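Practice problem: predict the structure.
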Amino acid sequence: MENLAVVGVGYVGLVTGACFADLGNRVVALDINAERIEGLRRGVLPIYEPGLEELVGRNVAAGRLSFTTSYEEALREAGFVFVAVGTPGGMEGEADLKYIRESAESIARTMQSPLIIVNKSTVPVGTGDWVADIIRANQRTPIPFSVVSNPEFLREGSAIADFMNPARNVLGSTDTRAAEKVAQLHLPLRAPILITDLRTAEMIKYASNAFLATKISFINEIANICEALGADIKEVATGMGYDPRITRHFLEAGLGYGGSCFPKDVKALAYMAAEQGRHPQLLQAVMDINEDRRIQMIEKVRMLVGDLPGKVVGLLGLTFKPNTDDLREAPALDVAQRLLAAGAQVRAYDPVGMPRARELLPALQTAESPYALAQGADVLVVCTEWNEFKQLDLVRIRELLRRPGVVDGRNIYDPKVMARLGFQYLGFGQGYGADGEPLAMAGSEKQART
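Answer:
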């Protein structure tokens, strides 16, 4: 058993602390937000993540996991301190490292014995060296320490499974022995461990997220072409995904990516490249395509209802993906703001995201169920692919709508089935018009004859 401290109890920090505790370590999780820590002590989690409440409760009851606002308490017996604080994006895409700086200064002033400081936060390349300089400058007396970069690859909605069954664990440090000690903590997970230098480890995180975002924007670009030529993007993605060089993952066309990682990390990587005199044209295209998906969504709504002023638009889903309450960079909020600016009346339903959405967007109305959302609406817009939306009574939905219109930003419905049920339906790249008939048929026949 090792003694660990975790700084930050957001998605990454709380999952990391609870999972390491479940592996038999003693973990003290720290956050400067006293209200959040008090809630955790009472069993109230600050985030929604499937299975996390049970995991936290079990390890608190076993005495392996505790919470504090005190660096002195957190570091008293710790040999490792995992830093998992936020690094929000700045105006130009640069990462804001104020929370990293504050935590590094606090660790330096508080530590009483040698420490291995493990950075879990997504930070610009070179941050590990910078953190080491901050700690050296703020120590009251020189105490040995090492900095290790251990980027996280957790997906919200499946974070516990991702931690316990990782594809790989990446560790970067100028101190190989320190990296090997952190590797020992990960051995029970029985996953490949890659040990590199600090900067390479930091870059692996950005490169991984940028590549996944690129796959999403690529399939959305292909979806645009499918719409023009009458092909079905879902079948195209399936055919591509059978190729082991490509795989099916992240080939879902629709409204595009959002969340706390992809938008911020692609922007930050592009910013870092530009700062070094490089021209990140592919990354810029990835961001441009993603932005265009929201614009296309508004245009599809107009195709079904005409001018937007006075129209009632119902959004199915608000969170950036299912099985999370995270609204950071959620496409639905962007769509809602654009619709409101165009004069539409916008209301929404989401299983867990509505309380926070009302705080972020007060003009947004909310409904207690998908059926209440449909009542009197001119069109429904699918923004998040929650499972419950796939099982709706669509006949009832059609009867409740003022007009039988659905714009499916996640392609969860079959356009032919929707047409048969009497809907005017538009998906993304599915090769069918609102009436369920194939698009560009005349053009396809003309090409075939030539």
